Amino acid sequence: MKILKSIALMSIATALLLAAPQGKKDAEFKGIIQMGKKSSKLLLKTLGTNMKKNMKDGGVMKALDFCSQEAYTLTEQVNKKLPKGVRVKRISSQYRNPANKPEGNEAKVLEALKTLQDANVILPRQIVEKIDTHTYKYYKPLVIKKKVCLKCHGNIQDVELRRAIEERYPIDKATHYKMGDLRGAVVVTIKK
Ligand code: HEC
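Above: inputs. Below: predicted complex with heme C.
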């Protein structure tokens, strides 16, 4: 009886020992997701609120000025608010601003999301890429859900607006989108 009991205890202890690293990994992963969610939300909220305000104040031309002059600066301001080792940005394989061109594996991840979407898969809220033992990339897919996005990313009818976009972005790739299309992703790089 005693022997059986100690065998049982030992196996429980072994199971706990084995479980400990897994538990730690799960907690770390949860932390990554939380940080990714929080940072991507902060960026999208900051850009969205300001875009709405500009659109309301001065229509699509003012909103364009905002996007082209301030989206980048505002992203930097959001980055300053995030903890050390965390950075957020937007990417697209059909980018308007070359600064938003995907780097490294990012293009592959976007392609994979596009393939999933083309196969009628409902996209996940997030994808996490492990870069190395300390670094992760959190991706939030960006799908065109609002008609307002098409004003500047769809088939642009407004000639004045089209010219203004071409002037600012001579190699613009970010037009001809439709509702529901994958526009790109928010990427949060998290260094532990
Ligand atoms: C008033 C015009 C305008 C509207 C409306 C607009 N955008 Fe943009 N968008 C731009 C401009 C200009 C840029 C380039 C910003 C820069 O220079 O960083 C851009 C860049 C982006 C990028 C970064 C990748 C890239 O192409 O450079 C994403 C993602 C994006 N827009 C998504 C959206 C979504 C989603 C909506 C709707 C909620 C939207 N946009 C509405 C003008 C607009």
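The pocket of heme C is lined by residues 60, 63-64, 67-68, 71-72, 90, 92, 95-97, 100, 142, 144, 146, 148-149, 151-153, 174, 183-184 (CB under 6 Å).
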